[in-house]
Amino acid sequence: METKFSVTFNEGVAKIELSGRLDATNAPLLQEELKKLIGQDVKRLVFFAKDLEYISSAGLRVIIFAKQKIGVDAQVYLIGAQEEVLNVIKMSGLDNFMVISDSYDE
Amino acid sequence: MAKLVASADLANLSKLINFIVEGAKHAGFDEKKVTQIKLASEEIIVNVMNYAYRGKEGDVEVSYTFHDDGAMEIEITDWGIPFDPFSLPEPDVAAPLQDRKIGGLGIYLVRKVMDEVRYKRIDDKNVVTLIKKP
Fold first, then answer.
1. Which end of chain A lies in a sparser environment, N or C, as judged by fewer CB atoms within 10 Å?
2. To which CATH superfamily is domain A4-101 assigned?
3. ipTM of the modeled complex
4. How would residue A1 be classed by pLDDT, with cut points 50, 70 and 90?
């Protein structure tokens, strides 16, 4: 699986597509992308993770960063996460503060 | 014992982790445990790369060996400032996202996915040992 990500923002919804891995080698790049949203009125942060195979604490920190710096009032979504990724999210307790679902309802 | 040394630079992270992951796969660890070994190794190696040498150059060494019961013992060594990663306070994983502190999460995950973790300062070296049972 190729590692890449994309960030789009439209009408209060930030969509972040993740694939491959989100670790210390690329998490800073995603964080830089997300910084561009600072100052926008973000109501939802939607992480699409169907094709994400691996996440480490560097990736978790990006999610926490997004919530704290971009959308303090935003609802965080995690869509389609695979078991291995979900396990790490759960270990860190982040699952209690996001909507986790197989598909995203617009 | 298999061993690999590289400069403590993020550019070498994948190489060092793959070295450990290949060893785990070769020994027959299942996919889930291989991912856990990968995660713990990344967290410790990244810590070394980010903090051990305070911006100066230095090396990180990874090695592994297997116990009689099949457990994998991984050692991650650096020659940087003395630092016990397991001395960090545990993060509050019940705290809401907006109140989360950024530090400590990686080490917390290491403790969760490994069966045993140890730190030793030996002469001028920091040695972190991670043990995963089959």
1. C
2. STAS domain (3.30.750.24)
3. 0.89
4. low
